[in-house]
Fold each of these.
Amino acid sequence: MVVLLGCASFFALANSLMTVEQEMEVASKIVGPIKNDDNCESCHALETEAWQNTRHFATFKDRHRSEEAVAILETIGERSMKRADDCRQCHYTSEVKNDKLRASFGVSCESCHGPARDWLALHSKAGGDTAADDLKWGTGKAEDPMAREKRLGAAQAAGMINSEMIYDIAKNCFGCHTVPNESIVNDGGHKAGSDFDLVAWSQGEVRHNFSSSAGAPDSPTNREATAEQRRRLYVTGLMVDLETSLENISRVETRGGEFHKAMIARANQARGRVDAVLAATSIPEIQSGLAKVTANIDEGATVDAATPMALGDATKAFLGNHDGTGLSAIDGLIPTETKGNPY
């Protein structure tokens, strides 16, 4: 999944770089966090401020200037990160301008929540009715539950990934934090991924839970995840890490290459952490999903494409059946430090 441009359907179908045609389709639906009409900032000012204090935002200004980036670009025969397909899809949010793809922002709102053109109006209208009144920012807690369900359902059907869709958001995260491009690792010297943990990163500098926080709408705080939510995030992160790594292994072309070895190491590490969770507490859905996964993958192992799909199904079943209560036995496994400080 490779595009922090934000199209979950593409990401779920293939954990690989989009074609230019697919990227054009996604980019044509990008609203943009700032500058453009009907942008995200117009309603989500605090969330935008939080984003502007993250590396996701800063990458647009400085990532291409780093020594590492310059070296990789030279190796792969490219001159610009913002114009190179291999780079642009993960490091930037692109728009279509004059019928061409243009990197316009760093990793932004729609990178995680999906390109908004099709669902922008639906997600802010009472009951998901485009003819209804706009909901004012921060008033969600007073919304009728059935109307809220209808509104979010309509927006989700049109492509929105909201904060409750943990699996989908995790797929977007790991789609780039586990680099899906084999050649850029083997031939370009790019790292095979980040030391990414869903709890540590989501509760750090990228945290932006204002509208649902105490004090909203007048004096909102940046709400932390509860202990129950952290447990769900942690298990989901481990499973999606394993799923994504196995997806990459299933499509590897150069066995024994740097990319292949890195994905094997990552998959084995994630599997070990999942095993530690299961040693601490029983989660039948996860145990069932692991049934076909070899405990210690080596370079000779073959991963069937159905295996990571089964892990995804297991993760979604876990999220559907567990609200985080009853999983306190894994609290000691969950990171307490965050990636950066929340805004």
Amino acid sequence: MQGAENNGLHLDKCAVIGDRWTDMIAAEQAGCMKILVKTGAGAKVFNKYQNKEYDDKWAEIVPDYIAETLEDAVNWLLKDDRE
């Protein structure tokens, strides 16, 4: 959090785009938007998420958006009326 403070970042306005559940955990802990992308390791992670195969400490974390690709994630972020 010190890095965000030193650089004037508002973490609640930042997003983490990742393909692993640890990325979602980091985003949650930092207070950022969480975008799970289904490329790379993301497809396997998404299947585990859908099937509720995570242990209790991860079960509470819900991505703000699940993107098919990095481009999809960026386009979602750029939309004015995010769902």
Amino acid sequence: MVTHNLDEAFEFGDRVLRMENGCLSPAYDRRPAQSHHAVNGNTFAPARAASLPTSRDNRKRTAMLTLTDEQLDALLAQDVPCGDLTTEVLDIGEIPARMSLRARDPMVLSSAEEAARLVELSGGTILMKLTSGTRLEAGQVFLEVEGPAAALHRAWKVAQTLVEYSAGIATRADHLVKAARSTNPTIAVACTRKNFPGTKEISIKAVMAGGASIHRLGLSETFLAFANHRRLLKEPVEQWVACAKAQIPEKKVAVETDNVKDAEALARAGAEVLQLDKMPVADVAEVVALVKRLGFSCLVAATAGSTRTMPQTMPPRAVRC
């Protein structure tokens, strides 16, 4: 974080330095002393408790993630490439109509903004809409629109299906987050970058709507050495880990492993994230205990496919129109 406000720096930082005339020196907090504590002669702001996203935060985050009109037009073109034959043959396209979308089962709403925009792009008008990240009860309406029947029929199935699949991911993410935090309230649940090609934006939005985070957006912004990478390396682990850390000092060096002994070797070599691949729970606990006992600062990430029993109607029949 970059800031020019010392009060803000002391609020977020454990140690604060001040640069003046090209020189660095310790900065001292001049706010009331009763709210701070001294360490080694310097005054620091107290650490704040970790704050996890709430359902309101999820709505705020996901509302900002929307597909572009160009992407939405492409979705419409896939379903209605050359007009709506049924509506045209029945000659009902100009009749004023109203459409509402509602949840069939309790679910976490996702892609509601895109569904509404699909209607607008087709020529309809939004009467009411809820925000992605909202928890819905069975039967609850989340989108109500009006317009010419041709416009609503053009957007209907694309909007419905988009919400069904997106909400399915969001609801599953929400269940996993709740299950994990029932044991550890501060745990982070992150989703893999694996998704059906062409659906990344929707998948990311759905994961965030469900209260989870993103493990990796792709290969460009994170370093994660898998077994297939490590088989090609000839240098000792300490050497290539140190080299990687030197090349990307602002990023974490993460390495995947599937056994306790290798995890310890990687931690000793300086790996900053140990990604434990499908390891038994007892082994994961052993690695966590080992990291704490030896005083390593690396993060332990347990990875595996996770499932949770969900209503069989979602998707693909999660939304009633």
Amino acid sequence: MAEATFLDSTELVLNMGPQHPSTHGVLRVILKLDGEKVMGTECVIGYLHRGVEKIAENRTYTMFAPYVDRMDYCAAVSNGLGYCLAAEKLLKTEVPERAQVVRVILTELNRIASHLIWLGTHALDIGAITPLFYTMREREEILKIFENYCGARLTTHAFRIGGLQYELYDGFEQEVNAFCDTFPARVDEYEELLTGNRIWIDRLQGVGILNAEDCKAYGITGPLLRAAGVKWDLRKAQPYSGYEKYDFDIPTRENGDTYDRYIVRMQEMRQSLRIVRQAVKDIPAGPIMGKVPKVMKPPIGEVYLSIEAPKGELGYYIVSDGTVNPYRVRVRPPSFVNLQAVEKMAKGALVADLVAIIGTIDIVLGEVDR
């Protein structure tokens, strides 16, 4: 008798993607199916690979900064913050307090904008159309602030190594405060539509369970980890940019399913708003740039620095050989690491559940492939 093949008569291999609906970009998932039941998955990536880390070796430290904005293009401000902090650590540069406070404001607004994209598209994947229109309405107000500050809306290059790119424009505080005043009621609207919705609960509860041990084994961070009951947030655990001064909570849940991840992100938007309110209330006067040499030649050495991006731990590893170009740059993107949990979460689920599982990870293929 011949050796058993990969497939038996009841199994089917199906390609899901690469296309944007449901796979959130150019992700190809090879599904092993028994009818509608998922027996196994294999994520095929690389369709959006641009060689960002290799490009860094042929750019100066300053020239490379805009490239990181193009990785997680839904959270460009966070990408830029992580890279600038890593380069500043390498250069041993002190960032002025005014710049740090403005960085926190813009980064937390960006976290809210990123979560809004996630919520709208996640709901759309599952069949709820209205939340997308609602979330884009609020995201637009954040993008207007970014555009007024630096002229960009999506790949927002807001920071410089050593501080800020621009001084604040007239009316910045008023616009941020106006957003803070209207946004809580908007989040209430989203929750009214979804949190107690019978269809939403049926589609999310008990789907894609990932417990704390699995998260630690896979290196999963961000809302996925906190939804499994682990109270870990780099803004609290390893504070940067003055986060230790702000009063905010780390939302957690216990079940580690798709519904809990939804709840965690909803609460995170409210916590980000708390931080923004505290920061914008008292923006200190002073310079926006620290003392940075015009020609940056960091001493020979290496550095790793990570921040709490909207999707999880975003880390930059930079090696300096004493020249104007980095010798090596390596990025630890949360989407790339979190994506590996698809197989664990999807096994035994239905194809429709797989769509919800991919959505709940909140991947951006620009940072998966780089």
